[in-house]
Amino acid sequence: MFCAIGLVLLTLAFASPGTQVLGKLFQGPTEEILKRAYDVIIVGAGAGGGATASRLTEDPRVRVLLIEAGGSDFMNLNISVPARASTLSRSRFDWNFTTVPQVGLDNRAVLYPRGFVLGGSTAINQMVFCRGTKDDYDRWARLTGDEGWSFEKLAPFVRSVDRMTLPTDRHNTSGQFDPSIHHHVGTVPISVAGFPLPINSRVINTTAQLPDLFPFNLDYNSGDTIGIGWTQSTIHDGRRVTSATSYLAEAWSRSNLDIVVNTRVTKVLPVGYESGKPVMRGVEIAQTAGGRTHTLKAREEVVLSAGSIKTPHILLLSGIGDASYLSSMGIQPLVDLPAVGRNLHDHAFLGNSWLVNSNDTLDNLRVNSTLAAEALTQWQANGTGPLGIAGGSQFGWLRVPNASDFFAALGVADPSAGATSAHFELITTDGFISKRIAPPTEGHFFSFITAVISPTARGNVTLNSTDPFDAPIINPNLLGTDVDIAVMREAVKAARSFVAAPAWSDYIISEFGAFAEAHTDEELDAYIRNNTDTVDHPVGTVAMGKGAQGALDSDLKVKGTIGLRVVDASAFPFIPSGHTQGPTYILAERAAAMILRDI
């Protein structure tokens, strides 16, 4: 049964030291894969695809093929070490996308990292775990007309994801999260930071000194994110947790799951028609541009989980999208669905740094190779030390003051989902941070990442050509509205107010670089435009919704088709006011339940 060329046996150490799971993995489309019959074919092994494959194969009657475009080296050292997350952009684990010039960023194009390995973007992200807010999901429910997407109704699926674990250093976590809202049987281990940072007490003391501006939030995963609290991350025993090391680890030994890597789905194909609709249960696959293609057919469904960039790309190449646009590109329209590729939106990222009165920051790991080597040795021994965290231990979400008046003056309604959802985010970092400029070779820093968390700008994904191996054209339209610029300006002002608290009086020396020169609103806007980048949270390009604004019905089925569903962040009608990894897992949990119900 096992092909010696295409099949690899992997030994994976996942859940805890000493626990091993054996599994099979095909490095390409072998004859065994091509001849086997599958009930469901899933495209993409990120948060959506990995979780869906695992849940479906819990039913031994359902045979699943999971296809990943990237490779299988998801236990690579740079992926596993949390502190090395920043090295993964422009690596072999990245699709290496770049946006078009962004009008809101002084016409700069920016890198647009997306995961290209088993685990998808869960293997290259910053590992923050957020569920999303009550208002976020309730807005989804209203927009889709499906109460199943409400915060209350999603609770069972949240429980299936969430597994709170001890931090690596096993410190007392009292007061750092609310145990009553977490679970111990979910698939994805999460934890608070397992390495103490000198700034921790200063951050928490600020919430006591300035409670009206920066209230303490014991647990932002309660459904109300507002305030400053302790970060919860997909880190376990000091190692990154991905959809491969969690969901796929649980499924690895199941005989009804096959996984093939290094293989791209170039388009989805109709295998017939029912009631005038194409039955989209076929996929075309290839490993190289111009190379041999193969066709596979699912008995029940094809599930696109290729992410917010590749999922619309595949649909457009398949003739599913705006018919007039497809015709102009020389593609025969199959389903006229103008919403495909539209509604792209993302969180905007800005690093703001201060020089500090300390020689004990994470900057030392960047400039001192001996110290970095010692930290790696410690991490390899037991997962402890500074390499087992992702840069900061606290962050928070805040709303602009007098929000109604603020947005009315800008001529728009409040873009957030409601009172539990933020307008901007503050992320603490024990060191220098910027995606725009190289880090200084000397000095010690404290940084706040400010992020626009309820953006109003919308962009799109379109075709560069009809060659499926050409990257699509990506325009997230970062800071593309005056509203988003104004919110980022308020976020920077909030960061300055935060470090003006007494807790920082003997620590902060001065603002650093261009940040120090930006004081008036005009100067701040120029600084923001010249230094902002992406948080890497693209969503919405094949969104659920009623009417022409939605590409998907509320059950995630592609409108106008049979047998085709989307399970990834492209299905989000609105971006959550938090990081997108957790909501994608939650969406996949419900999606898997709906698929099992239907097949």
Automatic annotation (TrEMBL):
Coiled coil: none annotated. One of its GO terms (molecular function) is flavin adenine dinucleotide binding. Residues 307-321 form the Glucose-methanol-choline oxidoreductase N-terminal domain. Residues 1-15 form the signal peptide. InterPro entries: FAD/NAD-bd_sf (IPR036188), GMC_OxRdtase (IPR012132), GMC_OxRdtase_N (IPR000172), GMC_OxRtase_C (IPR007867). FAD binds at V117, N125, Q126, M127, V128, V265. The active site is at H537, H579. Keywords: FAD, Flavoprotein, Signal. Its cofactor is FAD. Belongs to the GMC oxidoreductase family. This is GMC oxidoreductase. It comes from Polyporus arcularius HHB13444.
